[in-house]
Design goal:
The protein is α/β, with parallel strands linked by helices and 257 residues long. It has two domains: 167 residues, 3-Layer(aba) Sandwich (Rossmann fold), CATH 3.40.50; 80 residues, no CATH class. The protein has ten helices and ten strands. Strands 6-7-8-3-9-10 form a six-stranded mixed sheet, sandwiched between helices. Helix 3 crosses helix 5 and helix 6 packs parallel to helix 7.
Amino acid sequence: MLAIENLGKRFGGVHAVQDVTFAVRKGDIHAVIGPNGAGKTTLFNLITGVYAPSSGRIMFDGENVAGMAPDALARRGMSRTFQNLQVCMNMTALDNVMIGAHLHLNQNMFASMLRLPSVRRADSACRDEAARLMEFVGVGAHIGADAGQMPYGALKRLEIARALAARPKILLLDEPAAGLNHTETAEIEALIRKVAQSGVTVVLVEHDMKLVMNLSDRLLVLDYGKMLAEGTPAQVRANPAVIAAYLGAAQADAQHG
């Protein structure tokens, strides 16, 4: 589904991502982990077209999409969420999800102005699909609500519903459990598993190691923009380089704490 080959990104003299290579199999849940500043979000931004790479290739469904614009990637079946909520708080929850479906709405300006029957049917079908996705992610109780009235944990799942409205082949989740309590994290974990079981390949950046180890088929570990390890959760957990990097980070935190 996705093959990253010798990917690199420089910002001036800083190598934010350096010679990263890994592959994501169709249907898998593939996690990217590492200490703060390891290059995880930069890697996501490269894959999803926010940044153009300085070197390397990004093969998505057999096509090199490196440097392609986010909207072009979305049309090819790549969708993402962001670490910080990107929800329109002045809109209804349902309208937020409908925004995600705009790529699939074939409406021209004159048809929209005249409110032709074909446009009304498309709008109705889009609303029905948005409501179905809200039920799917577990926020069906908020279908009639404004987004600004929803609790934070529900908004995180609303974002996933909006990303799914674009009908992706692959979904990239940036810190989906950030800021959630224990119960909400468990709900997100169950939802991500449900998304993968529905046939959508998932790549996630996440700090919650329990969630990552429970969910992931494979993990990529980054450290200072370089690959430290890659493999199954069991392989990564037992990797001496990973243990050293994480223990080192924990010791440094303890000294400065």
